[in-house]
């Protein structure tokens, strides 16, 4: 039986502007999650666990905040002599040069390398969601239907119009696609996970360029054209998936994790791998108390931590309270401070007796404390 040649492309170049200060000087895929992980760890671990041997990461925004973490693919067994991890940057000097203007444009600018690779299937992934997924299931659906594009989809009950919304026949054939519609026709949305027939993807992008149509993001030109002129199918995903597009979603995903409603980070059958050196154990002093929380290595807790996630090197001094919060690397919560319903950025220093609380304001329900990185 002929082996299917699959190329996985992880799109990790977006600025993540809706995350505010959390992505001012770091790539969104480099944002910590669950204490010791980074968002990019999820697609890379899924690729590794799914047996994907060729994985390319496309970077652009603040690439150095991510590139060191990628560590040549070693944590995900992608540091191979042949194949493995390849990092793609914007370039000058040949067709496709310059900075991409969106995720679809990023693929087009690397069309020469993609064409030369000669894959049977292109697996295209975003790097800003939390989920576990055996991508082989998606590839199998794609091949079985003979589709030009297969979209991984899920249902979203609250405001599906934030995403690409589809309607499909009973056999999974996608009949309609709308990108972030104000009045969505269904609650079925794309997960920014796609398989493409390479010639259909690159050929459609070339057609859009020749016609002067927008091809910046998938939802603007590419997917509507493939749905209307080619063969598009969905693959329904029934497990946990959350897009971390806003600070509120980022905070909520951590609460899901603490409540056991998110991915299982302790599943030996599907490990989430990450890079990072050895660090000393966390220390809980005699005055410190921790309830229903994740405390990462090299942290010291002398205060009270409840329903929170502490990244490596965090210090919670005696008398301080951290409640329903996410505290990133090496932040310090000083004595007497109270942090609640908040995200404390890496290197931040919350002063003694200071109060940081998220509110009922629908615009800014989660407080964010910025700091040096």
Descriptors:
single chain, Spore Coat Polysaccharide Biosynthesis Protein SpsA, Chain A, UDP N-Acetylglucosamine Acyltransferase, domain 1, 2 domains, eight-stranded parallel β-sheet
List the helices and strands and how they pair.
Layout: E1 6-11, E2 32-33, E3 37-38, H1 41-49, E4 54-58, H2 64-70, E5 84-88, H3 103-109, H4 111-117, E6 121-126, E7 129-131, H5 135-145, E8 149-155, E9 164-168, E10 174-179, E11 188-196, H6 198-210, H7 218-229, E12 232-236, E13 241-243, H8 247-258, E14 283-284, E15 289-291, E16 294-295, E17 300-301, E18 304-306, E19 309-310, E20 315-316, E21 321-327, E22 332-333, E23 338-344, E24 349-350, E25 355-357, E26 367-369
Parallel strand pairs: 1-4, 1-6, 4-5, 8-12, 14-17, 15-18, 16-19, 17-20, 18-21, 19-21, 20-22, 21-23, 22-24, 23-25, 23-26
Antiparallel strand pairs: 2-3, 6-11, 7-13, 8-11, 9-10
Query: Oligomeric status of the shown chains?
Result: single chain
Tell me the fraction of residues in β-strands, as a range.
25-35%
- Helical stretch tally: 8
- Based on DSSP secondary structure assignment, what is the total number of beta strands? 26
Would you identify the CATH H-level superfamily of the largest domain? Spore Coat Polysaccharide Biosynthesis Protein SpsA, Chain A
Look up the CATH topology of the largest domain.
Spore Coat Polysaccharide Biosynthesis Protein SpsA, Chain A
Classify the helix fraction into a percent range.
10-25%
The CATH architecture name of the largest domain reads: Alpha-Beta Complex
Q: Which regions are unreliable across 5 or more consecutive residues at pLDDT < 50?
A: none
Number of domains: 2
Query: Biggest sheet: strands, sense, closure?
Result: 8 strands, parallel
Estimate the mean pLDDT confidence: 93
Global morphology: globular
